[in-house]
Amino acid sequence: MFDTFKNRLEITGVLTTITALRISAGRSSEPIGSDLPVIKDALGQPLIPGSSFKGAMRSRLESFLRGIVGNNRKLVANPAIEEEWSITSQEIKELKVNCNDDETLTEEIIKHTDLTSLLFGSPWIASKFQVRDLRVVPNTWFGQYQERDGVAIDRDTETAADGKLYDFQVVPAGTQFEFKAVVENAAEYELGLLMIGLHQFETEQIPLGGGRSRGLGVVKLDIKEMLWFDYPENQPQLLLDYLKKLVLGDKTVYEDAREFKDHWVQQLIDYLNSQVSHKSNTEVKK
Q: How many beta carbons lie within 10 A of that of residue 255, not counting itself?
């Protein structure tokens, strides 16, 4: 899947916290400080792990796909539970017995892998979508965290339960984070799925972190650039030019990927329609 370079999409932008954000680092062991601090980098600045962004997007897209194709693990898997993988360890072992070489085995595994796993990765396949940790834009954060109180209510007295008062940190609303992501060797319908996920962040539809039922974690993604390079096979000079310009920092080697968004989304719709039709035909035959 990654042994030969095929294409590359680079995405940069800014993620802004519309409401306060809490991505917890776990309970603090410090004698003085917040009970539940947020994740910070080595300099003590707020940080959004790339895995948090990627996981939230994947979860939302999987919910959409299940609404379209149902709970068919061959089309939408759950990487957290092996029984719900699109291809289990036992099935991979069986494929190894029937495949004569690694290339054939890889092709079979990819053929049996669900759409989200092809893009986001799973225990048996590498991810095509890489998101860097989102670091704070310095002039949007003034070195301060907000402290908020939390409390568990005693249902009998309707007052604070003994020993259940705690405080937690949040990153203030209006803080901005640098967003950088790369996608390599993705099929057009996979890029279509990614475009829908990014649009969900652009329209404030996917919250991040904890406390979301309290209104925390609303974020908005503003994409600044989407740079696309597609490498046709058997044109080595084109790839050499790309590598040369890449080193020189010449962005003319790229195309603006915004021009392809509609096409990629349509490819996804066509792909899903074919999967739904195939499923319906199979059920009719049964």
A: 13
What is the pLDDT confidence band of residue 29, given thresholds at 50, 70 and 90?
very low
Q: Is the C-alpha dihedral spanning 61, 217, 261, 8 positive or negative?
A: negative
CA distances (Å), origin 135, targets 9, 12, 158, 275: 21, 13, 41, 39
| pLDDT tens by residue, 212-236 | 888 889 999 999 999 999 998 888 8
User: In the numeric block, which tokens belong to residue 124?
Assistant: 């048996």
Output the DSSP codes for 138-178: GGG--S--EEEEEEEEPTTT-SEEEEEEEEEEEBPTT-EEE
Tokens 């994740």 locate to 39
Give the separation between CA 66 and CA 60, rounded to whole angstroms: 10
Amino acid type, 41:
D
> H or E element: which one contains 224?
strand 219-230
Across 63-81, average pLDDT? 85
The pair of three-digit structure tokens given for residue 284, joined into one six-digit string: 């009719």
Residue 31 in tokens: 């004698």
Distances (CA, A) of 231 to 142, 175, 247: 44, 38, 17
Return the structure tokens found at 189.
């319908």
Q: How confident is the model at residue 10 (pLDDT cuts 50, 70, 90)?
A: very high
Laid out side by side, the sheet with 255-256 consists of 129-131, 176-184, 7-17, 219-230, 255-256
- Of the candidates 1, 9, 67, the one whose C-alpha atom is nearest the C-alpha of residue 225 is 9
DSSP state of 223: E
Instruction: Tell me the angle at which helices 89-98 and 102-111 cross, rounded to the nearest 10 degrees.
Output: 140
